[in-house]
Specification:
Bound molecules: adenosine-5'-diphosphate, magnesium ion
Number of helices: 8
Distance between the termini: 24 Å
Structural class: alpha/beta
Pfam families: VirC1
Order of helices and strands: EHEHEHEHEHEHEHH
Helix content: 40-55%
Largest sheet: 7 strands, parallel
InterPro entries: DNA_Partitioning_ATPase (IPR050678), P-loop_NTPase (IPR027417), VirC1 (IPR009744)
Protein name: ParA family protein
Length: 217
């Protein structure tokens, strides 16, 4: 029903972490969730298959000609399809962006993250021009350290580049790292609150068919 693509050409920016947070948290709420791992390292697929904590339908697909038919097929039988993409330039990423209702661009607090977020945003605009429709895009600040000079600097730089950010920041929290070893998304504390706040914003943007109150545990 809804397709969210997580993309940025910066490696290690938090794409897979964000895809885990979204798919795990939404599946936990009882929605039908599918994920497509379009990265060579297939970290998202490994996470889903190794732990199997949530009923997430997981597919791996690197072939650019197969991404859109696969996403559309999964969207017919699921409430949400999340596509995790590679950091390196791949045609599959362009098509994953082209079929998305929302593109989320994770960005940490470094210059390279901002540069690659801007490049990825340009790629989204090109895909939008190609498909002749707007593609909703938001930057997600992650591994975030509040009240630091660099955080303020990155936020200003993103604004100068004309990049819109979600209001929710995913802070640098150990719970987001533990998740990679346990297979479970945070269920309480600051990390869970941030995950829920992020999803409420996605709902408000119209990119997730769920009443936002259902995300408040
Ligand atoms: N909000 C966060 N808090 C703590 N660590 C984070 C956060 N976001 C990402 N990371 C860490 O950053 C590293 C890279 O993240 P990953 O999601 O694998 O990036 P990508 O998929 O873009 O290559 C991982 O070690 C991950 O645990
Ligand atoms: Mg990844």
């Amino acid at each position: 029903m809804s397709i969210i693509t997580v993309a940025t050409s910066k490696g290690g920016a938090g794409k897979t972490t964000l895809a885990q947070i979204i798919t795990g948290t939404v599946a936990k709420r009882g929605l039908r969730v599918a994920a497509i791992d379009a990265d060579y390292n297939h970290s998202l697929a490994d996470w889903v298959r190794t732990f199997g904590r949530y009923p997430i339908t997981i597919e791996t697909e690197l072939n650019e000609t197969k991404i859109i038919p696969l996403a559309e097929r999964l969207a017919e039988t699921h409430d949400l399809v999340v596509i995790d993409t590679a950091g390196a330039a791949m045609q599959a990423t362009v098509f994953a962006i082209g079929c998305a209702d929302l593109v989320l661009i994770p960005c940490q607090l470094s210059s390279a993250d901002v540069v690659e977020a801007a490049k990825t945003s340009h790629l989204v605009q090109s895909a939008a021009a190609m498909t002749r429709q707007e593609i909703l895009t938001r930057v997600v600040l992650t591994d975030y350290q509040a009240k630091t000079v660099v955080a303020g600097h990155v936020e200003r730089e993103l604004e100068v580049c004309g990049l819109k950010t979600l209001e929710t920041r995913l802070h640098r929290l150990v719970a987001f790292k533990e998740m990679t070893f346990t297979g479970e998304v945070p269920g309480e504390g600051a990390a869970a609150a941030q995950a829920n706040a992020l999803l409420s914003e996605v709902v408000a943007l119209g990119a997730l068919p769920l009443p936002s109150k259902e995300l408040v545990s």
